[in-house]
Amino acid sequence: MSHLSRRHFLAGATAAAAAATISVPRVHAQKKGGTIKFVPHADLKVLDPIATTAYITRNHAYMIYDTLFGTDANLAVKPQMVEKFASSSKGMKWSFTLRDGLKFHDGQTVAAEDAVESLKRWGKRDPLGRLLAAHTAKLAPVDKKTFTLELAQPFGLVLEAIGKPSSNVPFIMPARIAATSENEPIKETIGSGPFKFVKDEWQPGNQVVYVRNPDYVPRQEAPSGSTGGKAVTLDRVVWRYIPDHATANAALEAGEVDWWENPPLDFVPKIEANSALATFVTDPRGTQGWVRPNHKHPPFNNKKARQALLYIVDQPKYLKAAIGVEKYYRTCPALFSCGGPFESAVGAPGKPDVEKARALVKESGYDGRPVVVLDATDIALTHGAALVTRELLSQIGFNVDLQSMDWSSVVARRAKKEPPAQGGWNMLFTWWIASDVINPAVHAGISGAGDGAWFGWPESGRIEELKVQWARATDKAKQKQLAEEIQRVAYDEVLYVPFGQWVLPTAYRKAVSGVLPFPAPLFWNVSIA
Amino acid sequence: MLREILRRLVATIPVMGVVAIAVFALLHVTPGDPAIIIAGDYATADDIAKVRTKLGLDKPFLTQVGIWLGGIARGDLGASIYSGLPVTTLIKQRAEATIALTLLAMLISIAVGVPAGILAAWRRGSWLDRGVMVFAVSGFSMPTFWLGFVLVYVFAISAHWLPVQGFQSFERGLWPFLRHLILPAITLSVVYMALIARMTRASMLGVLSEDYIRTAFAKGLAPRRVLVRHALKNASLPVVTVIGLGFALLIGGAVVTESVFALPGLGRLTVDAIIRRDYPVIQGVILVVSGVYVLINLVVDVLYVVLDPRIKY
């Protein structure tokens, strides 16, 4: 089977992104006004971007909130609400000054206190935020526009944390709202971003409506990712949730909607053949799939049994079953994603070797007890991966109990730490966008904190020690070296096994222009003819 | 009669109470935990416990039932665990689409099904009769989602006569309202059209062989008058029963139609809520729909008396 090389994959995705951006006229030449109808990948149910990690809530938050820093298309962190910033005492003290003209949707001026309270709430929920908070001695406003951050210990990721592009993003909200407990959803949705949320027109399960914020003052730089000038030309953005893919496709073809965020890949060839429609990979870094064993219970509490998984997870087989369309996927051994700054093949197994895997299972002393594999049948990609895994596990001698259920049941079941025979589990499948696995600090799967780790609960003191060293390293070369060491240990301990990386195109009518490459759909710079 | 209606309405209360408790109990033994879904991927056990406390899910089962029933007594069905919006608001947002779809679908079913059944019975054994029966069997056999997509392809994508999806409130004008409902209503009505046509035919065949019908024809009455005034009225009880049952089935069947045509109705609200284990929404919708079922049954019983004065309660 032939596969796209990494170079071709990234070149194709980047070229697609670049072509779409280049073809977009400058903002001042774009048509002003109009309504765009957008089909999001999910229904917006939760409005609080700190209370949930759901991507749909993150996308909603990018509409109405602004961020202190953003991440551009090349992953560089740049100021957004911040006008100027400085660090002193070898990076132990930071000062941030807000831009002029920043206003919340209720007319109040954005103050340093709002930024401080928002960061504090985020720092109680987000893993990277918690890490920053743990290294912080003091975070406080100095005056109306300036606040300072004093570290208690060296921390090399201050800007990366505050400019984090994906869930949970440190969005800035009024201090009185940010004072809400992190375990309680906020009651008001007031941001200072380029769009305003029209709460009266919000119908969960049907539509979300945003209107242009006329008071928003964009930066002067060209837009790139979540940085630069967030100049809005649209008057109104309507998210229409259409759960049935065939209906969404028909609505796009008929011109009833303008932009479909994530068409399933089996619809893409039809869309590409339609001259009125265009596709575009908005997140060229894509998504990584995982096979996650449960380290808490037999057989995968045994390292040998876990290592057997390394020799059966044949990425092309998985990707073909889970994704299907070759030009959108690629094999990738890098735990910190291919195309990211910490891409590496260190520690990855070579070719699949069923005999070796079988021998490892034998060495592990596996006693034949059923291996409970959770199969979310309503998510095509995890279902495909589960079916392939069942076959492969059976081939190497495991007695597989594939349990079919919906994703919500998997989400509830995966939190159960009991043995599989008492409602627990042995293996599950999931996926993360590259931005969420791009370094050891944000990567949920790279943790050896036992009960404090992500579901599967691996225990590895070495991983935890290396992560602390990585977070405190301020030198890029040192970070790279530590990231490789973390990956080597992670593969040795088999925290999880990646089953490949893929990108998903977005589809829109050619009347739409100015779509920016970014993991979330952004509506500034977008216009409609 | 009025006393009977009042008695039946009062009897609705314990029925609804039993439904409410059964729904509550069933939901709480179903696998899935909204606290875990809300707490998110990075939540610790402590975070999940806090969310569960906040939602009141850590309270004993009977306490939760009591709180919910107390809310219902005050007309408060609670709020969605996810959006925080009151369940009554969510139901109001969705009720118009489902009511409009169900009524229009039933209207089409009756308008086509009853005359087709009468004609088939009147011309028993003819090509017309066979045609109606072929249609009835086909109507039963066609999956709703398949028919919906065929209609969308023909009338929306190819001919551009009607929209693919969506809903417009009646407040925005009669034509925009109807335009968005025609295809879903036809899709939903075909099965019931077939059911009503078959039932009308069968019931009419029994009545048309009666002596008084032969007498009516013999004394020179016009066929239309005999069929509608004499035969149909006497054949209508089973048809009314089927229509009553059909209303209840239509509300259930609307789930698929609402998904195919992206109609913001109660069916989709329920399915979304079940997927996410949004307990207050599921409980609220099922309670309201159960109430509607009970009322439809009452209306059917009253219609029996109107159509056949021999029936007394």
Quick summary:
Chain A is α+β, with helices and mostly antiparallel strands and about 525 residues long. Chain A contains 15 helices and 23 strands. Helix content of chain B is about 80%, strand content about 0%.
Structure, explained:
The complex is a heterodimer of chains A (529) and B (313). Chain A is an alpha+beta fold and 529 residues long. In chain A, the strands form 7 sheets. Chain A has a 7-stranded mixed β-sheet. In chain A, strands 5-6-8-7 form a 4-stranded antiparallel β-sheet. In chain A, strands 16-20-15-19 form a 4-stranded antiparallel β-sheet. In chain A, strand 17, helix 12 and strand 18 form a beta-alpha-beta unit. The radius of gyration of chain A is 23 Å and the shape is globular. With 313 residues, chain B is mainly α. Chain B has 12 helices and no strands. In chain B, helix 5 runs parallel beside helix 12. Chains A and B meet through helix 7 and helix 13 of A and helix 2, helix 3, helix 5, helix 7 and helix 11 of B.
